[in-house]
Amino acid sequence: MKPFRASGRTSSLPPSRRNGGRKGRQAFFQEEGPNAGAMWHETSIKCRSKDGYTRKVKSQDTWNPMAQNSITALDNMLSLSIMSVLTMKQKDKEQSQKHLNNLKDRFMSICTQLKVPSQKHGAILQGSHLHQVEAKRATLGKQCLEVIEEQVSTVVRALEQLEGKIEVLKEENRRLKNKLEEQENSCQEFLQLAEQGILHLPTLPLRNGQECPLQEQMVGMVTGPGVAGHLVQTLKSSLELEGMHAFLEKSHQQADGLLWNTGQPNHHCPFPR
């Protein structure tokens, strides 16, 4: 059981509880309409004044209602905020918009009757001005970012072109290297052919110093002057000897021509003419 109270007075609950709490405020706003905010504000002030709850700020009597330009700037800021919130929602946009607009209207109705110090009239205008400055900075930053992205794209395209040129140069280098190897192989084959064209003649046997020359040997074979004259006449009248003599003459002429062409004249004739 609840304990009995000593007196019949009501319990000391907070003002919000006595006025109905959150549900009571919602019902009050729904009944009174757009001007419910101002009426609720006045009612709460009266209730707090009756209970001795309010504290009077120094020089509050000199406060004035908010200027119309401040209210307009605040309304614009709230409208922009509502639009930014609605862009992030994917469903129930109409209901959210109605709810936010209703809240904005209530808040603005309170602001029209709200008194503020005279020196703070331009605070909202200053906030709006700062918002515009920041918006301009953001726009300028986006433009700078676009310029930087374009410059980066240009650099990337230039690098891609350089990579293509490098690949072309590498391919040309490989082609020239293969061509050089083919030429080296051809030179090796040519050198091998030149080596094969060299005549490898056997060396002449060395003569012993004690042997007599061929002419002395032939003179020793002739026994007398008559025999030598007879041999000479026989050799001159021989057809084979004449053919041999013509062959030697022709060979001697060919040898002289080859030596003159190479720049080495023949001063010694090994064959008799």
Automatic annotation (TrEMBL):
Localisation per UniProt entry: Chromosome, Centromere; Nucleus
Signal peptide start and end residues: none
Region span, Disordered: 1-24
GO CC annotation terms, alphabetical: chromosome, centromeric region; nucleus
Keyword Lipid metabolism among record annotations: no
InterPro entries: CAD_CENP-Q
Pfam families: CENP-Q
UniProt KW keywords: Centromere, Chromosome, Coiled coil, Nucleus
Presence of keyword Nucleus: yes
Residue ranges of coiled coil: 145-193
Transmembrane segments: none
PANTHER family registered for this protein in UniProt: CENTROMERE PROTEIN Q (PTHR31345:SF3)
Family recorded in the similarity comment: Belongs to the CENP-Q/OKP1 family.
Name of this protein: Centromere protein Q
Species: Paramormyrops kingsleyae
Lineage: Eukaryota, Metazoa, Chordata, Craniata, Vertebrata
